[in-house]
Amino acid sequence: MKNIVLALDFDGTLYPIEKFDSEQLLALESIKYKKSNEDEIKVFIDHDKRGMLLPSQFNALYESFLSGVDEKSVYDAIRHIFTYFDKKNLESLKRILSLDYIRPAILSCGSDVLINAFLEEAGLDYDFHILAKEFTKTGGKLDHLVYHVKHIDDKKSELIWLKEKYDALSVAVGDGPTDKSMLEASDYPFIITWGKKRENFGFEEIENFDELEKKIEEIASTISLC
Ligand SMILES: [Mg+2]
Question: For the chain, is the Cβ count within 10 Å smaller at the N or the C terminus?
Answer without folding.
Answer: N
